[in-house]
Fold:
Amino acid sequence: MPSKLSDYEVICTIGVGSYGKCKKIKRRSDGKILAWKEINYGSMSETEKQMLVSEVNLLRGLRHEFIVRYYDRIVDRNTTTIYIIMEYCEGGDLGSLISRCKRERKYLEEEFAWKVLRQITLALHECQQRVKGSAVLHRDLKPANVFLDAAHEVKLGDFGLARVLHHDTSFAKTFVGTPYYMSPELMDHCSYNEKSDMWSLGCLIYELCSLSPPFTAINQQHLAVKIKEGKFRPLPSPYSAELQELISRMLKIDAVLRPSIEDILKHSRILELSAPKK
Ligand SMILES: CNC(=O)c1c(C)[nH]c(/C=C2\C(=O)Nc3ccc(Cl)cc32)c1C
Structure:
């Protein structure tokens, strides 16, 4: 029996993005707390709608501890809105956490940065394994798309939807927000590849430590220059040379020189986190 909107009680809005709203909801049948994303597809072309359907179907197949769990979807043709029902992440998004640390002038623990690096890498590994060939690449890896559950475990969200929601080639829709994490090859309009996600992940871990992206500028033209120059300030002193070195490798301009997902998972500090607790 397909779900209907009345099966859920809306509690509150927890996020607003270029796609629409994200709301905290309660499933009436068992009281389970979930979240749904409301996406209005009314102005989408047939191609974009088809992409949305295939991306949602892809999300359905992704079951991983570090990827936001998909539960269901409801299509309301009267309002041309799709409701994508997913797991609730009580800890919110990394973007809000970084902003809070900035306000409080407090750096995050290095151990947390390594944990986030490991868990997002495993999430990316899962996706690239699960859809071999037409590898699903995140394309929108940024702090606002990484969430934390009640135990502060990482949950990668919005997988693949970025492709659809920014599919429109118009400038306004293509460059939604400042592309701080865009790789040099993408800045040069070259093809996206799994090392582009590695660049974005390097930017994300850098920002988690420095509380600012590695590359910033007053406009997108200057940002492109900075990214292609590839120069960035070192991490703040509390962080180890080991973490600095790995992030520097992830931010190599030449994608070939960046570590692969497997390289990251073989790093000694990552392996330590994988070892069973004594
Ligand atoms: C201020 N908002 C929050 O703290 C917050 C909380 C408690 N949860 C979220 C976001 C999500 C959430 O809780 N579940 C989600 C599933 C998919 C996506 Cl793309 C986002 C979410 C947010 C943005």
Notes: The radius of gyration is 19 Å.
